[in-house]
Amino acid sequence: MSDFNRRDFIRIASGATLATGVLGFPGLLLAAGPKVVIVGGGVGGCTAAKYLRKLDPRIDVTLVEPKAAYTSCFMSNEVLSGDRTIESITFDYEGLKRHGVKIISDRVSVIDPEKKQVVTDGGERFPYDACVVSPGVDFKWDAIEGYDAEVAETIPHAWFAGKQTVTLRKQIESMPEGGKVIIVAPPNPFKCPPGPYERAAQIAMYCKHHKPKAKILILDPKDAFSKQGLFRQGWSKLYGFGTENSMIEWVGAAGGGKVEAIDPSTMTLQAEIEEFQADVINIIPPQKAGKVAFASDLVDGDWCPVDKMTFESKRHPGIHVLGDASNAAKMPKSAYAANSQAKVAAAAIVARFNGLEPGDPTFVNTCYSILGEEHGISVAAVYRLDKETNVIESIKGSGGLSPMDASDEQRKREVTYAHSWFKNLIHDMMG
Ligand SMILES: Cc1cc2nc3c(=O)[nH]c(=O)nc-3n(C[C@H](O)[C@H](O)[C@H](O)COP(=O)(O)OP(=O)(O)OC[C@H]3O[C@@H](n4cnc5c(N)ncnc54)[C@H](O)[C@@H]3O)c2cc1C
């Protein structure tokens, strides 16, 4: 493609217009091979890597990720019900390599914005013209007394899909009939707002068939949660929620659901008003941006402030922070949100390399939750940026929740849509 045609292509792809003022990368205009280094091979990182290469194949894209394969958190609750295996949600990086992305198996210790270098634990330094950071979340380990990374090996959070997801599944399988599972939900904001409530349903789905007297209790420091009406309705229909024999029980903040401490030796949780004991405990701790964001001075409080036009850090120019680690209000911390943000950031980076200004971004998010074999619910929205406030607002009438009065057939169809969404997203980010 000639330079002229490539510029036209990028303008169309990104909605960008020619810059009239000072360009971020005037020296790179029409130059070959600007370098982008990507930190984290999850949803945001992979999508950005692939789309940078698709938008402008001259760009030299290097992705640094410590794990050999990506295990997706989305759909990992289905491993808990036994509906799928951990292998079915684990994907290698061969697809990205075919797009010409260089994969480096290492962990980034720090990003040096002065020298414009990404430094790894292995001692390598990767210079960049633009850096994309999508490291996901880290936990606030000091929030619940007695709970830390070591205890989490046996009392799993399973909020990063992988070994702990399998541990939790095994614990549920080996729990006695009539046993009790407690899920400790985190405070807002956290990754996947409907996740703990879908998890309760997925565990109940397994118990309904194999341990019908089991109980699943959610202890929650909040008084409301995502898709609450739809969850309560689904739990009622499938697991008797709200009746004496309900398999699922939810205790919110007003009822004393905030957990303050755990004694792992007796499997006892100390909540605000009373103590709870269980056979299986799943604590999902409060969250903040991934460690490398703190090490690289990209945070303000718990999350990374960004200009939502480009997802460029408000703290260090040339570094774009995406996904769960960013403060992308009012988008939720979800895979689809990270995927959408990555495309906006990739288009903005390519525009800048080519002497163009970024176009007006739009974003999309859909979040499915599977409550039973034939019962799915969802929330969807299309978003635009309010440039005055730099807040991402959902466009009125663009999405919404699954209807409360949906037919059984519609609920069943949403399960099919959820599985199809999963396949499409994985393909879009790394296929
Ligand atoms: C149980 C559960 C269910 C979910 N279900 C859904 C769903 O149905 N729909 C949905 O949209 N979202 C869902 N999510 C949320 C979704 O998984 C996240 O929002 C999404 O993965 C965020 O993408 P990300 O790129 O920010 O981070 P991640 O996908 O978590 O990727 C971060 C990557 O960065 C790497 N990394 C971290 N630190 C470093 C470092 N220092 N150097 C190099 N690499 C590093 C990590 O190893 C990881 O591979 C779910 C989450 C959970 C926990």
TrEMBL record:
Keywords annotated in UniProt: FAD, Flavoprotein
InterPro entries according to UniProt: FAD/NAD-bd_sf, FAD/NAD-binding_dom, FAD/NAD-linked_Rdtase_dimer_sf, FCSD_central, FlavoCytC_S_DH_flav-bd, FlavoCytC_S_DH_flav-bd_sf, SQRD, TAT_signal
All residue ranges annotated as the FAD/NAD(P)-binding domain in the record: 35-147
GO MF, any single term: oxidoreductase activity
Residue ranges of every copy of the Flavocytochrome c sulphide dehydrogenase flavin-binding domain listed in the record: 360-430
SUPFAM superfamilies: FAD/NAD(P)-binding domain (SSF51905), FAD/NAD-linked reductases, dimerisation (C-terminal) domain (SSF55424)
Name this protein carries in UniProt: Sulfide dehydrogenase
Lineage: Bacteria, Pseudomonadati, Pseudomonadota, Gammaproteobacteria, Chromatiales
